[in-house]
Amino acid sequence: MSTQAPVLPNAVKDRKKVTTLTLRKMKQRGEPITMLTAYDYPTALAMDQSGVDIILVGDSLGMVVLGYPNTLPVTMEDMLHHCRAVSRGARNALLIGDMPFMSYQISAQEALRNAGRFLQEASMDAVKLEGGRERLEAVRAIVSAGIPVMGHIGLTPQSVNQIGGFRPQGREAAAARLLLEDALVLQEAGCFSLVLESLPTRLAALISQRVEIPTIGIGAGIGCDGQVLVTHDLLGLFERFTPKFVKKYADLHAEMRRSFSEYIQDVQERRFPGEEHSIEMPDEEWQRLMEGL
Ligand code: KIV
Protein backbone atom coordinates (compact mmCIF):
# COMPACT_ATOMS: atom_id res chain seq x y z
CA MET A 1 0.00 0.00 0.00
CA SER A 2 1.45 3.41 -0.97
CA THR A 3 1.57 5.93 1.87
CA GLN A 4 2.67 8.81 -0.37
CA ALA A 5 0.38 11.83 -0.42
CA PRO A 6 -0.70 12.80 -3.93
CA VAL A 7 1.00 15.86 -5.42
CA LEU A 8 -1.64 18.56 -5.38
CA PRO A 9 -1.73 21.40 -7.92
CA ASN A 10 -1.08 24.84 -6.30
CA ALA A 11 -4.58 25.98 -7.16
CA VAL A 12 -5.90 23.20 -4.89
CA LYS A 13 -3.33 23.70 -2.09
CA ASP A 14 -3.91 27.45 -1.86
CA ARG A 15 -7.66 27.43 -2.21
CA LYS A 16 -9.95 29.33 0.09
CA LYS A 17 -13.20 28.18 1.63
CA VAL A 18 -15.87 27.92 -1.07
CA THR A 19 -18.97 30.01 -0.33
CA THR A 20 -22.27 30.59 -2.10
CA LEU A 21 -20.72 33.79 -3.47
CA THR A 22 -17.79 31.81 -4.93
CA LEU A 23 -20.31 29.66 -6.81
CA ARG A 24 -22.24 32.65 -8.14
CA LYS A 25 -18.97 34.15 -9.46
CA MET A 26 -17.99 30.82 -11.03
CA LYS A 27 -21.27 30.81 -12.95
CA GLN A 28 -20.68 34.39 -14.09
CA ARG A 29 -17.19 33.45 -15.30
CA GLY A 30 -18.47 30.27 -16.97
CA GLU A 31 -16.29 28.01 -14.76
CA PRO A 32 -17.79 24.53 -14.23
CA ILE A 33 -18.69 23.77 -10.60
CA THR A 34 -17.87 20.32 -9.16
CA MET A 35 -19.96 18.61 -6.51
CA LEU A 36 -19.83 15.09 -5.05
CA THR A 37 -21.58 13.28 -2.24
CA ALA A 38 -19.77 12.07 0.90
CA TYR A 39 -21.02 10.37 4.03
CA ASP A 40 -17.87 9.79 6.11
CA TYR A 41 -14.61 11.35 7.27
CA PRO A 42 -12.02 9.63 5.00
CA THR A 43 -14.03 10.22 1.83
CA ALA A 44 -14.61 13.87 2.69
CA LEU A 45 -10.90 14.30 3.43
CA ALA A 46 -9.80 12.81 0.07
CA MET A 47 -12.45 14.73 -1.84
CA ASP A 48 -11.68 18.05 -0.19
CA GLN A 49 -7.95 17.59 -0.79
CA SER A 50 -8.69 16.83 -4.46
CA GLY A 51 -10.30 20.25 -4.79
CA VAL A 52 -14.03 19.59 -5.17
CA ASP A 53 -16.13 22.77 -4.82
CA ILE A 54 -19.16 21.34 -2.99
CA ILE A 55 -19.63 18.27 -0.80
CA LEU A 56 -23.22 17.15 -0.42
CA VAL A 57 -24.08 14.82 2.42
CA GLY A 58 -26.92 13.39 0.36
CA ASP A 59 -29.84 11.41 1.69
CA SER A 60 -28.70 8.94 -1.00
CA LEU A 61 -26.77 7.59 1.99
CA GLY A 62 -29.97 5.66 2.75
CA MET A 63 -29.42 3.59 -0.40
CA VAL A 64 -25.65 3.47 -0.91
CA VAL A 65 -24.51 3.26 2.73
CA LEU A 66 -27.47 2.05 4.80
CA GLY A 67 -28.88 -0.42 2.23
CA TYR A 68 -32.50 0.83 2.10
CA PRO A 69 -34.41 0.43 -1.20
CA ASN A 70 -34.92 4.22 -1.42
CA THR A 71 -34.23 7.41 0.54
CA LEU A 72 -37.54 7.55 2.45
CA PRO A 73 -36.44 5.84 5.71
CA VAL A 74 -33.54 8.26 6.29
CA THR A 75 -33.99 10.34 9.48
CA MET A 76 -32.64 13.66 10.73
CA GLU A 77 -30.48 11.75 13.21
CA ASP A 78 -28.97 9.63 10.39
CA MET A 79 -28.20 12.77 8.42
CA LEU A 80 -26.68 14.71 11.32
CA HIS A 81 -24.47 11.75 12.30
CA HIS A 82 -22.98 11.53 8.78
CA CYS A 83 -22.77 15.32 8.34
CA ARG A 84 -20.64 15.56 11.50
CA ALA A 85 -18.21 12.95 10.15
CA VAL A 86 -17.93 14.76 6.80
CA SER A 87 -17.41 18.16 8.43
CA ARG A 88 -14.43 16.75 10.37
CA GLY A 89 -12.77 15.73 7.07
CA ALA A 90 -13.46 18.74 4.85
CA ARG A 91 -11.88 22.18 5.12
CA ASN A 92 -12.48 24.12 1.91
CA ALA A 93 -15.51 22.73 0.10
CA LEU A 94 -18.95 24.20 0.71
CA LEU A 95 -20.77 21.64 2.86
CA ILE A 96 -24.44 20.96 2.19
CA GLY A 97 -26.70 18.77 4.32
CA ASP A 98 -29.62 17.13 2.51
CA MET A 99 -32.91 17.50 4.37
CA PRO A 100 -34.50 14.04 4.71
CA PHE A 101 -38.08 13.05 3.91
CA MET A 102 -40.61 14.60 6.34
CA SER A 103 -38.11 17.05 7.84
CA TYR A 104 -39.40 20.02 5.79
CA GLN A 105 -42.78 19.05 4.31
CA ILE A 106 -45.03 19.45 7.37
CA SER A 107 -44.63 23.16 8.02
CA ALA A 108 -42.27 26.01 7.25
CA GLN A 109 -41.56 26.26 10.96
CA GLU A 110 -40.46 22.63 11.20
CA ALA A 111 -38.41 23.04 8.04
CA LEU A 112 -36.62 26.01 9.58
CA ARG A 113 -35.99 24.19 12.88
CA ASN A 114 -34.54 21.16 11.10
CA ALA A 115 -32.47 23.26 8.68
CA GLY A 116 -30.96 25.06 11.66
CA ARG A 117 -29.84 21.76 13.18
CA PHE A 118 -27.64 21.05 10.14
CA LEU A 119 -25.67 24.24 10.81
CA GLN A 120 -25.78 24.24 14.59
CA GLU A 121 -25.20 20.55 15.32
CA ALA A 122 -23.33 19.27 12.26
CA SER A 123 -21.24 22.20 10.94
CA MET A 124 -22.90 22.31 7.52
CA ASP A 125 -22.82 25.57 5.53
CA ALA A 126 -26.16 25.11 3.74
CA VAL A 127 -29.06 22.71 3.24
CA LYS A 128 -30.76 21.14 0.22
CA LEU A 129 -34.40 20.19 -0.16
CA GLU A 130 -36.46 18.65 -2.94
CA GLY A 131 -39.44 20.12 -4.79
CA GLY A 132 -40.64 23.17 -6.70
CA ARG A 133 -43.39 25.74 -6.03
CA GLU A 134 -44.83 23.62 -3.19
CA ARG A 135 -41.64 24.38 -1.20
CA LEU A 136 -41.91 28.14 -1.47
CA GLU A 137 -42.87 28.74 2.18
CA ALA A 138 -40.22 26.37 3.53
CA VAL A 139 -37.46 27.92 1.40
CA ARG A 140 -38.48 31.46 2.36
CA ALA A 141 -38.54 30.61 6.07
CA ILE A 142 -35.10 28.95 5.98
CA VAL A 143 -33.49 31.66 3.86
CA SER A 144 -34.94 34.38 6.11
CA ALA A 145 -32.98 32.87 9.00
CA GLY A 146 -29.74 33.29 7.03
CA ILE A 147 -29.41 29.65 6.02
CA PRO A 148 -28.47 29.11 2.36
CA VAL A 149 -30.80 26.69 0.52
CA MET A 150 -30.07 24.61 -2.57
CA GLY A 151 -33.22 23.53 -4.44
CA HIS A 152 -33.64 20.20 -6.24
CA ILE A 153 -36.09 19.67 -9.13
CA GLY A 154 -36.67 17.09 -11.87
CA LEU A 155 -36.36 13.56 -10.54
CA THR A 156 -36.84 14.08 -6.80
CA PRO A 157 -36.14 10.68 -5.18
CA GLN A 158 -38.22 11.42 -2.06
CA SER A 159 -41.30 11.49 -4.35
CA VAL A 160 -40.44 8.14 -5.94
CA ASN A 161 -43.86 6.71 -5.07
CA GLN A 162 -45.68 9.64 -6.62
CA ILE A 163 -43.66 9.80 -9.84
CA GLY A 164 -43.77 6.02 -10.30
CA GLY A 165 -40.09 5.11 -9.99
CA PHE A 166 -36.68 6.60 -10.69
CA ARG A 167 -37.60 7.99 -14.14
CA PRO A 168 -36.47 10.99 -16.18
CA GLN A 169 -38.70 14.06 -15.85
CA GLY A 170 -39.73 16.93 -18.11
CA ARG A 171 -39.83 15.12 -21.42
CA GLU A 172 -43.19 16.59 -22.46
CA ALA A 173 -43.53 20.31 -23.22
CA ALA A 174 -46.10 20.96 -20.45
CA ALA A 175 -44.01 19.22 -17.78
CA ALA A 176 -40.87 20.98 -19.02
CA ARG A 177 -42.61 24.35 -18.73
CA LEU A 178 -43.64 23.60 -15.11
CA LEU A 179 -40.03 22.72 -14.27
CA LEU A 180 -38.76 25.99 -15.76
CA GLU A 181 -41.37 27.88 -13.73
CA ASP A 182 -40.37 25.95 -10.58
CA ALA A 183 -36.73 26.93 -11.12
CA LEU A 184 -37.71 30.60 -11.35
CA VAL A 185 -39.95 30.34 -8.25
CA LEU A 186 -37.15 28.74 -6.21
CA GLN A 187 -34.70 31.42 -7.35
CA GLU A 188 -37.22 34.10 -6.37
CA ALA A 189 -37.69 32.45 -2.96
CA GLY A 190 -33.96 32.81 -2.33
CA CYS A 191 -32.30 29.50 -3.29
CA PHE A 192 -28.59 30.04 -3.99
CA SER A 193 -28.38 27.09 -6.42
CA LEU A 194 -30.47 24.29 -7.93
CA VAL A 195 -29.87 20.60 -8.53
CA LEU A 196 -31.43 19.48 -11.83
CA GLU A 197 -31.84 15.70 -11.80
CA SER A 198 -32.67 13.44 -14.77
CA LEU A 199 -33.86 16.07 -17.23
CA PRO A 200 -33.42 16.30 -21.00
CA THR A 201 -30.15 18.08 -21.84
CA ARG A 202 -31.92 20.86 -23.77
CA LEU A 203 -34.32 21.61 -20.93
CA ALA A 204 -31.56 21.68 -18.29
CA ALA A 205 -29.51 24.02 -20.50
CA LEU A 206 -32.52 26.31 -20.98
CA ILE A 207 -33.19 26.46 -17.21
CA SER A 208 -29.49 27.14 -16.59
CA GLN A 209 -29.60 30.08 -19.02
CA ARG A 210 -32.83 31.50 -17.58
CA VAL A 211 -31.78 31.53 -13.90
CA GLU A 212 -28.95 33.60 -12.45
CA ILE A 213 -28.14 31.08 -9.72
CA PRO A 214 -25.86 28.13 -10.56
CA THR A 215 -27.46 24.86 -11.62
CA ILE A 216 -25.82 21.55 -10.76
CA GLY A 217 -26.83 18.67 -13.02
CA ILE A 218 -27.08 14.95 -12.41
CA GLY A 219 -28.27 13.13 -15.50
CA ALA A 220 -29.11 16.53 -16.97
CA GLY A 221 -26.42 16.90 -19.63
CA ILE A 222 -23.56 19.25 -20.30
CA GLY A 223 -25.48 22.55 -20.29
CA CYS A 224 -25.67 22.91 -16.48
CA ASP A 225 -23.30 25.20 -14.56
CA GLY A 226 -21.88 22.25 -12.62
CA GLN A 227 -22.13 18.50 -12.19
CA VAL A 228 -22.75 16.16 -9.27
CA LEU A 229 -22.51 12.38 -8.97
CA VAL A 230 -23.20 10.03 -6.10
CA THR A 231 -19.68 9.05 -5.07
CA HIS A 232 -20.53 5.39 -4.55
CA ASP A 233 -21.66 5.24 -8.22
CA LEU A 234 -18.52 7.02 -9.47
CA LEU A 235 -16.27 4.68 -7.47
CA GLY A 236 -18.18 1.52 -8.39
CA LEU A 237 -19.00 0.87 -4.72
CA PHE A 238 -22.75 0.52 -5.17
CA GLU A 239 -23.53 -2.73 -6.92
CA ARG A 240 -27.37 -2.79 -6.99
CA PHE A 241 -27.72 -0.71 -10.16
CA THR A 242 -25.87 2.01 -12.06
CA PRO A 243 -27.95 4.76 -13.68
CA LYS A 244 -27.21 5.49 -17.38
CA PHE A 245 -25.84 8.94 -16.56
CA VAL A 246 -23.07 7.67 -14.24
CA LYS A 247 -19.47 7.56 -15.37
CA LYS A 248 -17.62 4.93 -13.32
CA TYR A 249 -14.06 6.01 -12.49
CA ALA A 250 -13.19 2.88 -10.51
CA ASP A 251 -14.54 -0.54 -9.60
CA LEU A 252 -13.99 -0.50 -5.84
CA HIS A 253 -16.57 -3.20 -5.16
CA ALA A 254 -14.47 -5.66 -7.19
CA GLU A 255 -11.31 -4.32 -5.55
CA MET A 256 -12.82 -4.82 -2.06
CA ARG A 257 -13.85 -8.37 -2.85
CA ARG A 258 -10.38 -9.13 -4.20
CA SER A 259 -8.71 -7.70 -1.07
CA PHE A 260 -11.07 -9.48 1.36
CA SER A 261 -10.58 -12.85 -0.42
CA GLU A 262 -6.81 -12.43 -0.39
CA TYR A 263 -6.85 -11.62 3.34
CA ILE A 264 -9.06 -14.63 4.12
CA GLN A 265 -6.71 -16.92 2.17
CA ASP A 266 -3.62 -15.41 3.83
CA VAL A 267 -5.06 -16.07 7.30
CA GLN A 268 -6.30 -19.55 6.42
CA GLU A 269 -2.92 -20.49 4.94
CA ARG A 270 -0.93 -18.79 7.75
CA ARG A 271 0.75 -16.25 5.47
CA PHE A 272 -0.56 -13.37 7.61
CA PRO A 273 0.67 -11.90 9.92
CA GLY A 274 4.31 -11.99 8.80
CA GLU A 275 7.28 -10.85 10.89
CA GLU A 276 6.91 -7.33 9.52
CA HIS A 277 3.39 -7.13 11.00
CA SER A 278 4.38 -8.58 14.40
CA ILE A 279 5.69 -7.19 17.66
CA GLU A 280 8.69 -8.72 19.49
CA MET A 281 10.11 -8.30 22.99
CA PRO A 282 13.84 -8.09 23.80
CA ASP A 283 15.51 -11.53 24.27
CA GLU A 284 16.68 -10.73 27.81
CA GLU A 285 13.11 -9.88 28.85
CA TRP A 286 11.90 -13.13 27.34
CA GLN A 287 14.63 -15.02 29.26
CA ARG A 288 13.59 -13.31 32.47
CA LEU A 289 9.98 -14.31 31.89
CA MET A 290 10.94 -17.94 31.19
CA GLU A 291 13.16 -18.18 34.27
CA GLY A 292 10.35 -16.86 36.43
CA LEU A 293 7.83 -19.43 35.21
O1 KIV B 1 -29.02 12.53 -2.13
C1 KIV B 1 -28.24 12.80 -3.06
O2 KIV B 1 -27.14 12.25 -3.19
C2 KIV B 1 -28.68 13.81 -4.01
C3 KIV B 1 -27.86 14.00 -5.25
C4 KIV B 1 -28.20 12.94 -6.21
C5 KIV B 1 -28.01 15.34 -5.84
O3 KIV B 1 -29.68 14.44 -3.82
Can you describe what's shown?
This protein is of the alpha/beta class and 293 residues long. The protein is 44% helix and 12% strand. It has an eight-stranded parallel beta barrel, surrounded by seven helices. Strand 3 (94-98), helix 6 and strand 4 (126-128) form a beta-alpha-beta unit. The longest helix has 17 residues, at 173-189. The chain is elongated, with a radius of gyration of 23 Å. The two termini are 41 Å apart. Residues 37, 56, 58-60, 98, 152, 195, 218, 228, 230 line the site of 3-methyl-2-oxobutanoic acid.
Please write out the topology:
Blueprint: H1 10-13, H2 20-29, E1 33-37, H3 41-50, E2 54-57, H4 61-64, H5 76-89, E3 94-98, H6 108-122, E4 126-128, H7 136-144, E5 149-154, H8 160-163, H9 173-189, E6 193-197, H10 201-210, E7 215-218, E8 226-229, H11 231-234, H12 252-268, H13 283-292
Parallel strand pairs: 1-2, 1-8, 2-3, 3-4, 4-5, 5-6, 6-7, 7-8
Largest sheet: 8 strands, parallel, barrel
> Level of helix content?
40-55%
Beta strand count = 8
**Assembly level:** single chain
* Helix vs. strand class: alpha/beta
Gross morphology: elongated
**SSE series:** HHEHEHHEHEHEHHEHEEHHH
Strands across the major sheet, in which order? 1-2-3-4-5-6-7-8
How many DSSP helices?
13
| Rg value | 23 Å
Low-pLDDT stretches: none
In whole angstroms, how far apart are the ends? 41 Å
β-strand percent reads 5-15%
Average residue pLDDT: 95
| Small molecules (ligands, ions, cofactors) in the structure | 3-methyl-2-oxobutanoic acid
